[in-house]
Design goal:
alpha+beta; 10 helices; about 375 residues; six-stranded antiparallel β-sheet
Length: about 375
Amino acid sequence: MILRELNLLNFKNIEQASLHFADRLNCLIGLNGQGKTNVLDAIYMLSFTKSAFAQQDNLSIRHGETTAMVQGLYEKDDEVLRISCGLKQGGKKVFRRGDKAYSRLSDHIGLLPLVLISPQDLDLVLGGSEVRRRFLDGTLSQYDPAYLPTLNAYSQLLMQRNALLKQLADNDHADLSVLSVYDEQMAPLAEQIYAVRRQCVELFVPYFTDTYAILSDEQEQVSLTYNSQLAQRQVPDVWSMTRERDRILGWTSVGVHKDDLQLTMNGYPLRQVASQGQMKTCLLALRLAQALFLTGQTRHAPLLLLDDLFDRLDSQRVTRLLQFVVRDTLFLPSLQTTIEQPFAQIFLTDTDLNHLARLLDTAPDPSLHEQVRFFEVSEGRITQRQS
């Protein structure tokens, strides 16, 4: 899958842009705050129907304007796909494939697989369980079309159950049996979510451990474990055992919405024993493994977006990262599998063109220079740099 063309109108600080991309590597160069990340965010929006950074759609509309548009032209399986997103202040977002608007945005997820790596990813190691659940859910949603609707249905019922618990919280004589209506509806959804998450993690772990071993030169061993309360409890009785506690708390204390991924290094919790550099390597391994895993599941290498990483990593890790993502083949020993063109199209941002050029000189493929396109970004204006 290749993104051929990106057209932007009033998206964040970009008034207008029409960009034509190289098949292999596309580099956005400019000082911080000029709009490099906004280009990546527009590409992200075309895959996930929302911004990676803005919580509300209207924050993606250029200041002083009332509408914005993002449009991408893709090639996938010998088919040309035109995907567009229209935003309007105070209006409904319109997402289209060709000329047809989606009635449900969730139906689009997975069509254009994508992985974004940004400095905020350190939360995958240091943040709470909800960050790692989003990582897991984002992975599953891109290859299992039934997963996101199931998760959304569970989340809706959970919200309704929590609202009822808040109403019952101050009533010592409340009839808690009314919660059974929600419990019966949530139970089969929770079972499905637990089953597919467990299978996903089992399949994902070899990609992660092999990727970390390559990036770290096999200096440490890392592992990933899926922790769920449902592993020790029976569904559908999981909530009946905690109804009184839930009433006191005013929220549902048990369920797949409390699942987590446990990261370990040499058998110990990673956040307790890892250095800052090891944590950064771990988050890179998680995201790169996510991309490789999606390639294995969908047979389409996802777009890979690298945002502002070269200023945040030491030179050794930067070199290993670049050499990893531009290679033509990748052998994963745990799976005894060789992946051809593991990262089909890459978009990255950097502040220093000369720094990036020196890094590209370290790439294992000397022909890479002929497959790179550079774009200069300044105050929202984007121009292609002539080779």
